[in-house]
Amino acid sequence: MFKFNREREVEAKEKKLYKFMKKNKIDTLLISNLNNFAWLTGGGDSQVRLTQMSGVCTAVFTGGKKYIVTSNIEGVRIVDEEVKGLGYTLEAHNWWEAPKKEDIIKALIGTGSAASDDGIYNTRKIDGDLMQLRMVLSNEEVRKYKWLGKKAGKAMSRVCKKIKKGSKEDDVSAALAKELFKEGIQPSVLLMAQEDRVMKYRHPVSTQTTINKYIMVVLCAKKWGLVVSLTRIVHFGAVPAELAKKHAAVIKVDATLNLCTKAGLTIGEVFRRAQAVYKETGFEKEW
User: Fold this and answer.
1) Range of the domain at 127
2) Residue 268: is its pLDDT beyond 90?
């Protein structure tokens, strides 16, 4: 089992958050989106539906105190399993009285200035500012990323080595999802494309199409609010020269993006370097 110092991570992030609130004259901050909730709680998960962007609760920071505002059917689990030991106070309403959530939050806000990551209740939306805070990774997050990348890579390799001709794309998706969930990792994106689909679609969702020659397997694996992305191609028999050329170009572009992602360069500068490699490898318009 991977272990990390959650309390130390959360304490450092909250110091950063309170400093941000003071600088921007924010008395109360509301956090509802999954990514920000996970970041501030050191990996807490407030989702129920896999497709939602906002969680089932709102974390409220005000007056040096922290609250979880949600319905009575979500509150106990969130406090017991997602923010245990982090000092949150639960403020719950009956699930059939959804408007009560607004009443609770407005009472916590009082007469002070309020902001949020989703603009709820006409508060100032500052999700873009919070993204800037999230982009600076803590030491604990770097350790988590390394663990997650290693686990996702091993799961991908195990599944890819077992792919056979005649299998369906969905068979591969199911096998990969199973490997990930065994490690407590969620596949937030699973894309599959066999030879007839791979060159036609940028985001080929998995289908019942049969694999005859080769398949591209794309995965985004999520845990603690962190996501790693990886792609593999499994080919049966000799690889055609054109496919090998494209694969080599993709690897060079990917390496450029990774090597250029460092302090001192903007995202725009990194992307322009990648564009240059697209051109250099003969695929100028493919970015």
Assistant:
1) 6-134
2) yes
Cβ neighbors of 245 (< 8 A, separation 6 or more) are: 282
pLDDT in tens, 167-203: 999 999 999 999 999 999 999 999 999 999 999 999 9
Question: pTM here?
Answer: 0.91
What is the total count of domains within the chain?
3
Same domain for 204 and 88, yes or no, is no
Nearest to 89 by CA among 124, 53, 63: 63
Is the domain of 25 the same as that of 40?
yes
The DSSP string of 189-251 is EEEEEETTTTTT-SS-B--SPBPSSEEEEEEEEEETTEEEEEEEEEESSSPPHHHHHHHHHHH
In a domain, 81, yes or no: yes
The mean pLDDT value for 56-71 works out to 97
Query: Considering Cα of 252, then 257, then 263, then 264, what sign does the dihedral take?
Result: positive
In this structure, what token pair is assigned to residue 101? 């959530």
Residue-level pLDDT at 52: 83
> Of 134, 158, 179, at which residue does a domain stop?
134
Q: Is 1 part of any domain? A: no
Helical (H) or strand (E) element with 147: helix 139-160
d(CA 192, CA 201): 10
Integer Cα distance of 286 and 17 in angstroms:
40
* Burial of 235 from C-beta contacts in 10 A (0-12 / 13-18 / 19+): middle
